[in-house]
Hints:
The complex is a heterodimer. In chain A, about 35% of the residues lie in helices and about 15% in strands. Chain A is α/β, with parallel strands linked by helices. In chain A, strands 1, 2, 3, 7, 10, 15, 16 and 19 form an eight-stranded mixed sheet that branches. By secondary structure, chain B is mainly alpha-helical. A two-stranded antiparallel ribbon of chain B has the order 1-2. In chain B, about 30% of the residues are buried.
Amino acid sequence: MDKPIRAGRRQLLQGAAGLAAGLAAPAVHAQGAVTLRYVGTAVNQHAGIKEKVRQDLGITLEYIPVTSDDVVRRAVTQPNSLDILDAEYWMLKKIIPSGNLMGMDANRIKLVGEISTVFTKGEVAGKKIGDQGTAPIKVSYMPARDAKTFATGQTQWLTLIPTTYNADTLGIRPDRVGRPIESWAELLNPEFKGKASILNIPSIGIMDAAMAVEAMGRHKYADKGNMTRAEIDLTMRVLTEAKRAGQFRAFWKDFNESVNLMASGETVIQSMWSPAVTAVRSRGIPCTYQPLKEGYRAWAAGFGLPKTLSGRKLDASYEFINWFLSGWAGAFLNRQGYYSAVLSTAQKSMEAYEWDFWMMGKPAAQDIKAPDGTVMEKAGSVRDGGSFDARMGAVACWNAVMDENDYMVRKWNEFIAA
Amino acid sequence: MSSSPPDRRPMGRPVAPLLQAAPLALVLLLFFVFPLLATAVVSLWNYTEYSLVPDVTSRNYVEMFEGCSNLGEGLCTTFRTYLSTLRLCAMVWAFTTLFGFAISYFLAFHIRSDTMRMALFLVCTAPFLTSNVIRMISWLPLLGREGVVNQFLVASGLVDQPQDWLLFSDFSVVLAFVHLYTLFVTVPVFNSMMRIDRRLLEAAQDAGASGWQTLWHVVIPLTKPGLVIGSIFVIVLVMGDFVTIGVMGGQQIASIGKIIQVQMSYLQFPAAAAQAVVLLGLVLLVIAVMTKLIDIRREL
C-alpha cells in the first residue's frame, strides 16, 4: 500500500534531528559503522526514526523508498540489493515461495512474546478476528529457517516482524451525505451516483467491492481474499453494472488522488486510507473514517531479512528490529494513527492522554499534535471507530493475494475497459 | 579530369565510414535492438506469481485475445481497449494537427519580422519549461465539479448545475493531450513551412489562385513532411500513454499503457511484454502506412 510522504513534516524533523545530532556527540561504536539498506514504501521511512537509530545504535539506515509493487519486485528479483525489507503480509505469498527471505529466529527477538495477538494468535482481546484474505496469522511463521512455505502453527521461525498495521474502511463527507452511513452497501448505492470512488489497485479494490456486494446481500463469500473464478466474475459484474450506470466519479491510484477527490467534493463516499482522512480534515473539510457494521479490511506490514544477510549486517539487522519494538518507534507510529507491534512498550513512550485518544478511543483530554507540532485533532474529539480493541476487533478481512490472481487482474482490466 | 582516380580499395568497402558509424550502431544495438528483442522473447515465456519461466508458450497471446473471436457477446477486453485508445488517438491527432498547422501558418506567413517570429515561437515553447505532469494536473482544479469553470458557468447562469462531463471524461483527456502535444506538431510543421519558397506563393497569387487554393495546392503539399513527422510524434505518444489517460480520465478509461502497467505491477512481465509487442506492431503499421503515403526522406 502506498502511503503519503509528508514532505513538510519530514523536512522539519530532519532539521530538528540534525540540530539534535549536532549537539550530541557523534556515536562511535566499537564494531564500526554499519549501513543497512532499507527497502519499503515510504510509510515507515521517517527521518526521525533514522536519526534516532543512528544515535541509539550507531547504525545508518539507507532508506530506499519504492512503491508497494516494487517492494515485491525487489524482493523476488533482486534480494541482494537490500538488507532490510519492509513488506506487507500479503506480499509474502509471492515472496516466500521465491526462497529469498530467511525465517527470523524468534530467540533473537527479545520482545517476541509481547507481539500483539493479532499476529501470534489472530485474536484481539481474547476474541478471534476475521481471517479472510492473507491474515498475518496464516503467513507469520515458517517451518524452518530456509523454508519456502508457511507453517500452520507458531514456530521458532518468523517471516516478518510486524511494524505497523491498521483497519481500513470507507471515508465519507458527512456534510454532503447528510445522513448516517452504516454499511459497505452504501458504496454502490445509486443515491451517490457519480460521487463514489474505489481504488484502482485490483487486489484491494476487489475486496472493497466484495464487502459492498456481501453487504447488499448479493453473495456470501467463503473468503473475500481468495475468491473462486465464479465469485470474481460475479463481483466484477456488479462493479461493471455500477460503472456503466455512472456510479463512480473516478478511481484513484495514489494517496494524494484520494485526498483531492474527497477535498474537492468530486466524491462524497470512497475507499480511503486513514492518513488520507486526516489530510482532508487538516484542510478544514469535514471527513469521517466511517466504521461500518460489516467490519474493516485490515492490512499489516513488517520487517523481513533477505537470506543472503550474514555476519555484522545480520547482527545489526536484529539489533535494529529489537530497537524498533522497544517503544520509541512504536509510539512514533501510534501517534500517526497506525498500530505498533508491541503495544506495551509503545505505551510507556506515549503521554497518557495520547494513549487514551489513539488506543483507548477516549475523547482527547487536550489537543492531539503531529510530531511537527500542528494540531491534528482538537481537545474533546474522539478517534473514528474508537479504541484499538473496537477497531482491530472488528476486522473482517485482510489485504490479500488470491490463488486466482492472474484471472482477477485480467477481469479487472476488463472492468476498466467496460 | 578525363578519368576517375584509381580506387585504392577495389576489393572491399572503405573502413573509415564503417568505423564512423560504429558508435551509433553500437548504441542503437545495445539500447534499442537488444531490449526490443528481449521484450519479444519474454513475451513467449511463462510466469507464476513470483517467477518467470523461460519457455516457448503462446499463453500470453492466447489470454490477450481470449474471447475475441466471439463477437456475439460484445468486444473482448483487448479489442475494446484498443478501440478506446485508437479513438482518443484519432481525436487528439485531429485537434493537434489542426491547431499545430494554424499556429505554424500564422507564425510563418503572417508575421513579417524574423525577430518577432522567433520571439513568438519561443513563447509557444515556454510552457514546456515546466513539467508536463504539472501542466496536466493543473487542469483538475479548473475543470472539477466545484472548479473555476463550473463556478463561472453556474454564476453566469449558463447552466443550472455543475457539469460533470468537464472532468474525468473523454473531453478532459483530449483537452490535456492537445495542450501537451500541440507543440510536437507545431515545430516540424513550422520548420516545413519556413522552407517553402515564398516566390511559389506569389506565383500562385499571380496565376489567380484564391487564398484557399494556394493553401490547398501549394502550402499543404509542401508541409506534408512536417505534418507526418508531427503526426508520428502524437500517435506514438498517445498510444503508449497511461498517465494522462489515468489522471484526466479518472482511471475509468481503458488504455493499452494502463493494462501493461497493471500487469507489470503484478509481476506478469511476459503478459505485459506480449501486450507491448502487439502495441509496437500496430504503431509500426500506422507509421508504415503514413510514410508510404508520403516519402519523408524525399521531401526532406
